[in-house]
Amino acid sequence: MQRTWPVFIAAFGATYTFSVGNVTAPRLGPELNAGRGEVALVLAAFAVSFAAGLILAGRLGDRYGRRRLLRIGLLALALTSALAAAAPSLWWLVAARLLQGAASAIVMPQTLAIIQTSGGAPAQARGLAAFTASSGVGTVAGQVVGGLVMGLGLPFAGWRGAVLTSAIPSAVALLGAHRLHVHPPNSTERPDLGGALGVGVSLLALVAGLSLGPATGWTWWTPTLVVLGCLGLYGFWLGQGRRELAGRPVLVAPSSLRLPTLRLGLLMAVLLFAGYGAFSYEYSMLTQVGLGLTPVQSGLALTAFAGTFVVAGLRMPRITARFGDRTMELAAGLLTVGLVLLGLTSWFTQGKGAAIWIGCFQVLGVLLGAAQASQYGPLVGTVMAAVPHRVAGLAGGLFTTAQQASLGLGIATIGGVFGALVPMLGWEHAFAVALGIQVVTTVLFWVLARRLRSGPHGSSTLARGGQHRTETLD
């Protein structure tokens, strides 16, 4: 654990970079003359680029060495963060966020792979718990620290200063990355660069169409982008199957998804992170625009949520030891209760000022933070345990691809519904309706968690963070 601290800083920085975009979102519109759809596209561009490059980066790490790829990614993330902070216009910022996402994609699968191949089962369990905590802290710290930086009265503060802070964790992790153990390459396959490009363009078209559609009244070209994106992803999947049958290198081997545990785990990741991506975007818009809070106040209002998430993440081995393979089900039930209560609070406090809403959120934030950490931690272990060590980079890539693509899609879809409803219902009512959609995704998560536990491939060792590897690929 002492030698691997740069890995946890790197994981923190990758999620921090995504999250800091949420707190800056309300300021981008006035300063860059951007509508809600264009602002959502700025946020989703990072997630899409992140998602598109993850599996390829995992494969590259397996072939060329994970420490080498990690150092390259950290340097690129620091440089692209500075580029994003200096962006002169909206579309320059979109391009810079795409590059930031690509850099983060190089970093993240290496962190999971290094953790999963360092030490025995107890060390791996501790590493996964620390990874869960550090990446979760990065997600919430982006909004808290970003809000504080935006509130400073310095010449280069504002949203640009907040974005620039994304370079700091990467620089710190880069300074210590030479201490990491060198994992020799364990793959000789040439990476499928064409597949990576195809899935990246398809995801970008899909998310761009969904993000800009509501703002443009669904002009013909936005549905066209959505259709082309879906067709591109379908074509990518068919192409991967043909390449695998022919014995050629693939980005994602369709046969690797024969494991029920892996399939269910990835679908659960989609549901979990689509809801969270939308929630974080909607929270920033509601508190800063709807309720009139400053960025500092908006960030500080997340303190209870963030603190509980961190504590629960660090104590995840004890939590899963106490509740076993029911941990994710219980967490989904708690999250459902918290979302319903927050939705009711939002509905009945519309027009009554920010103080009541923020006060209620502080109480409910404890429940929400504990519940989300208890979903996320065991799920990481489940997905990682389903794939053997020799393709640990692929496992990290698959999970974080589902995570990041879902964050972007959640902003584009549920966040799009929220933005469309605000003029008709008002901020608090629109937020309550969006939370209702997230309740549905959480209930579906609960159903899948129950199926995972009760199915023939379910295993409490998976739910406890992959302390033992009980499955192998066919």
UniProtKB/TrEMBL annotation:
* Keywords of the record: Membrane, Transmembrane, Transmembrane helix
**Coiled-coil ranges per the record?**
none
What InterPro entries does this protein map onto? MFS (IPR011701), MFS_dom (IPR020846)
Q: Does the keyword Transmembrane apply?
A: yes
Where found in the cell? Membrane
What membrane topology is given?
Multi-pass membrane protein
- Top-level taxon in the UniProt lineage: Bacteria
What main location does UniProt list?
Answer: membrane
Q: What residue spans carry the region label Disordered?
A: 455-474
The Major facilitator superfamily (MFS) profile domain extends over: 3-453
Q: Where are the transmembrane segments?
A: 39-57, 69-92, 127-150, 162-181, 193-212, 218-239, 260-279, 299-316, 328-348, 354-371, 407-425, 431-449
Has UniProt tagged this entry with the keyword Transmembrane helix? yes
Q: What is this protein called?
A: Major facilitator transporter
Q: Which organism is it from?
A: Kibdelosporangium persicum
